[in-house]
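Dock adenosine-5'-triphosphate; give full complex structure.
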Amino acid sequence: MSLENILVVGKDSKAQQLARPFTEQLFAADDTDDTWQMIESVQPHLILIGSGISHKKLCSFLQTREEKSIDTPVVIIGDSDSAQYIDQLISLGAYDYLEGKGRHQQLAEVIEKIKHNGSGTDNDNKRYFSEGCPSSVSIVGRSDSTIKALKMIRLVAQSSCNPVLIVGETGTGKELAARAVHILRHGADKKFVAINCAALTANLLESELFGHVKGSFTSADREKTGLLELAADGSIFLDEINIMPVELQAKLLRVLQEKTFRKVGGINEIDCKATIIASSNKNLAKQVKRGTFRSDLYYRLAICPIALAPLRAESRKEDILLLAEYFLKNSAVCPEKAGKIEGLTKLAAQALEKYHWPGNIRELRNVIERAMLLETTNKIGLSNLVMNPEQFAQGTDEPASAGLKDFSLERAEKELIAKALNEAGWQKTRAATMLGITRATLYAKVKQYNIRQPLAHNAAHATA
Ligand SMILES: Nc1ncnc2c1ncn2[C@@H]1O[C@H](COP(=O)(O)OP(=O)(O)OP(=O)(O)O)[C@@H](O)[C@H]1O
Ligand SMILES: [Mg+2]
């Protein structure tokens, strides 16, 4: 088993000897810095890096390869690296790490794997991503809008722009984009800490962000490290910054300007080295006009905003079916059906394309996962696409009109069980079979979610 061409990097002559039996053409570069042009002209099927290149250089090589979207597998030969170093190289995209004895056999196995899997990445999954999508980032979509957003993500990540602002409606992928910026800028081994500004009161949010010293307020019985400090030289994600209380906005602005902050009640200045990534699902400029968001903070944040279009936008519509298929193939919610359901019927696909997707990608994923649970054939049909879950939420205590935030898995499960029970005429054994769960589990879920039988069904049973 051999590959057409292999590029060996480094001055390690043993690496060249090792590679020679496995290729028709062997290319060599002395150092990782000399490889890029060669990779472009030779298009190697494998990059084999010999020992003797520093860990730091290897990491930066793998990062640049990622940024340049080069998917040639990289195999590293090493001697004495710690498990932690090896993990880091693998997390940065190295295909394998050969160590110890029996390297010939190890390389033979790696090459067999590469031949078997194409370039080493899942070829089938590849079609869901645009060419500009780095392999460490799972942002599905090939629409103009997604390509533009990915370009912006890469540009921002490569720059030193800090803070970074990501805007888009709910469910458009802001957190995913934030993680992508983080990975491309800092690598996977650096910390990414997230906090939702809408979920906490002003005081709690302040102490979560900045930390506090012991005794700074009544319940501060010990010192606390804030997230800005915990993020260290990684990233902190301030989700829904549009809801941040105005008094905290001033404090955040100071951090952005001075790059230092103080704990609540503290006097020492602490350096802030982290990349601050903020997201907003509302138009911040409008909020500035309304006086609920500070204009100086807005201008500071909006230097290079990454905008994510809603799914219904003409420029992103093309992603709908691609995302639907991706969720069908990769969903973890129903692993026994993944692979068995081949796709969508034509009518179902048309319905997905026509829908306005107020909850965007999160809603689409929930619709697909719900349909997978309900579907008994090998294609998702129109009848199992429930775009508006309220329609089968009767019989529960939930208010009829639920907000967009209610597209949670838990809610979906509750609605699914209610639907199955309704369809099975409240015969629990049948409903349990439809759902693929035991009667006992069904009873437990009905109790947990307080699902009650609608009156019409009660009446039907009473007269039966
Ligand atoms: N392009 C995409 N490819 C694959 N999955 C995606 C994509 N965009 C979003 N998702 C998935 O959709 C869900 C919602 O994405 P995310 O949480 O990033 O959205 P959001 O904009 O932060 O939403 P919200 O405003 O409600 O917080 C997540 O499960 C995410 O993994
Ligand atoms: Mg979010």
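Observed: The first strand starts at residue 3 and ends at 9.
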